[in-house]
Amino acid sequence: MAEILIQNADTVLTMDDARRVLHGADVLIRGGQIAAVGQGLETSGETVSGRGCVVTPGLVNTHHHLYQNLTRAVPGAQDALLFGWLQRLYPVWAQFTPDEMFVSAQLGLAELALSGCTLSSDHLYLYPNGSRLEDTIHAARDVGLRFHPTRGAMSIGESDGGLPPDSLVEDEQAILDDMIRVVDAFHDPAEGSMCRVGLAPCSPFSVSRELMRDAALLARDKGVMLHTHLAENDEDIAYSQAQFGCRPGQYAEELGWTGDDVWHAHCVKLDVQEIDLFARTRTGVAHCPCSNCRLGSGIAPVRAMRDAGVPVGLGVDGSASNDMASLSAEARQAMLLQRVANGADAMSAYETLEIATRGGADVLGRPDCGRLEPGKRADIAIWDTTGIASSGSWDPAALLLAGPTQVKHLFVEGKQIIRGGELATLDLPRLIERHGQLAQRLMQ
């Protein structure tokens, strides 16, 4: 079995159970797994120098809408709140075809890889003009990232009092049938899986109570995870109270949407009782700080969640509400926002990097990822700390304070995806050109 030895790294942040930080250390990859971590390791296989570098587990993205890469910085949506932002963009998204879905997913995943991401979820909740979930799954295979796509859905259109246009909603039985199809076709529950499928009705304001409940029952029957948006902003809370007579956390609990097989995006407006509910049930949260800032949604109570024991990971959210897909930038923003809200000692660079790696893996139900220890998957990011971003830093391992935002090398399942700062799996300039052509078509 082929081996790769990452040799003589200045620092290795293992994120193992003991949270060991090793200096002058090696990481041995054998096949798709980590075989050993320590000093003085040897191999007869390939070696990759770790001198001048910090080695971490690959970053984990727990929430994205990859198709949105084609609608960045759209006029009329740049300064809108969530509901107005959606109303501006829905008509544009209605023009998408499978080609737009595929190319935007490729570009978004490539961008994530360059920022150190090895495992990404995606929430695709609209399927115009013949688009299907596998458009994104095939894109992830080409890029080489570990992928957790979710079969999202919207079923309540404008004519029924919902937010999305009727052209973008689906019949609920057809939604459930397609959920079964994609799980049966693409979900791999095995350890080391490169693709696991989740079920993800878009939000409480775009699907019925019945679909939320039925999706939860189906997910438990199929042994897959559940995902949706929850408590994103004040409008979200007001809608829940007006339509359901309760707060979002109570609504989720009533419909079976709590538990360690569920994770919710945003949760900016969770109150104390909802945080306690999530902690007791081990319900996960995808924290998306840049998008929350961009849409003026607020600062999620991540410090309170972490202290209570809520599983928290990071998400870049869609690039129509973030405008970029950099997990390293997302992690820094998460750290800074908790300091703004709670003081400079509220969250360290090391704790935030843990949320971005091990924390995200746990939210996605992947204890085989997010750690550098023997037996775990060989998903590894190598950060060059000899450049200008780290120059003068007394602690190069504090990457989120002073460090590079793009990786030097990236391995997924032991395969090198980024080599010397360049994407090794696709022709990135050609992909950018094609992506730009599709964006121009949508603008016309």
What does this structure look like?
This protein has helices at 82-93, 98-114, 134-143, 172-186, 209-222, 234-244, 248-254, 272-281, 289-294, 302-308, 327-342, 349-363, 428-443; strands at residues 3-13, 21-30, 33-38, 46-49, 53-57, 59-61, 117-124, 146-153, 198-201, 226-230, 262-266, 284-287, 312-314, 380-384, 409-412, 415-419, 422-423. The protein is globular and about 65 Å long. The chain is 35% helix and 21% strand. Strands 1, 2, 3, 4, 5, 14, 15, 16 and 17 form a 9-stranded mixed sheet that branches. Strands 6-7-8-9 form a 4-stranded parallel sheet. The longest helix has 17 residues, at 98-114. It is built from 13 helices and 17 strands. Helix 2 packs across helix 13 and helix 11 packs across helix 12. It is α/β, with parallel strands linked by helices. It holds the Pfam family Amidohydro_1. One of its GO terms (molecular function) is 8-oxoguanine deaminase activity.
Mean pLDDT: 96
Rounded to the nearest angstrom, the radius of gyration is 21 Å
Could you tell me how far the N terminus lies from the C terminus, measured between alpha carbons in angstroms? 52 Å
Count helical runs.
13
Strand content: 15-25%
Q: Flag low-confidence runs.
A: none
Assign the structural class, choosing from mainly alpha, mainly beta, alpha/beta, alpha+beta, or little secondary structure.
alpha/beta
Which sheet architecture does the biggest sheet show? 9 strands, mixed
